[in-house]
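Review form for a predicted model. The reviewer records the input and the model, then writes brief findings.
Reviewer: anonymous (R2)
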Amino acid sequence: MKTIFRFALLMAIALAGSAQSKVSIVASSTDLASIATYVGGDLIEVQSIGQGKSNLHFVEVLPSYMMKVARADIYLKVGLALDAWAQGVIDGARNDKLLVVDCSTGIEVLGKPTGKVDASMGDLHPDGNPHYWLDPRNGKVIANNICNALITVDPVHKADYQSRLAAFETLLDSKWNEWQEKTAAFRGAEVITYHSSFAYLANAFGFSVAGFIEPKPGIEPTAEHNNELIQLIKGKHISMILRDPYYSARAPESIARESGAVVYVAPSSVGGTPSAKDYISLFDSLVDILVRGAK
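Model under review:
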């Protein structure tokens, strides 16, 4: 009996040691967390502060988030001022060993404003549009940033991380060809979106955004603005309105009724809808919406 107990105790200690040896990652978003999982596999433990159905622009800094980061090895930031709140979490964690990674490093940023940015322009990001993960080609850039960070904190498993990175890039290349083929009929189309979330998606799949439900970023639509959009949709024969899950359906549905367009709830992050379970299925879901729009 003592032998069995001693064996069980040794196994428990071994398992605990194994769990502790994993690289601990906290990410601002589910998208970064998902990509980290592809690169790190079972060598990492990753948590996301932001959730797929919540607006990443606005996250309340809580002590529980600081506690997670206090025990982490790596923090993954979206950057481009989208998750400016993350710095408060990082500072509050007081973790001197934490490696902070700005995953926007190396991204070709869209929508950089020219000239001075002030409050009259709404919540405009001075460094450019921060929704860069919605171009699947940028998934490779993000994955490389994460891989480099993992190698820095866990050089023993360098070959494992590089192998997983290569497999993820191969998967993205294969899916890219599939997605491009499926959305061929949608190229050149115009859509209306609630926010500027889908600029990178439009750039990747060859459609354009003709207007926004928000008159300015972060500003609620007015009746006058809605009427202008209705006339725009009718004049250009636009059939699709894309709404992020966390924005109100009221204005988009009202505009759709008056204009004949159709509103699609489009996930802008992993977990935004039930079908968007990880980074790859996020694009499977979005491509499915574009295919339906083309029909």
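Findings: The chain has two domains: 2-178, 183-294.
Further findings: DSSP finds ten helices and eight strands in the chain.
Recommendation: see findings above.
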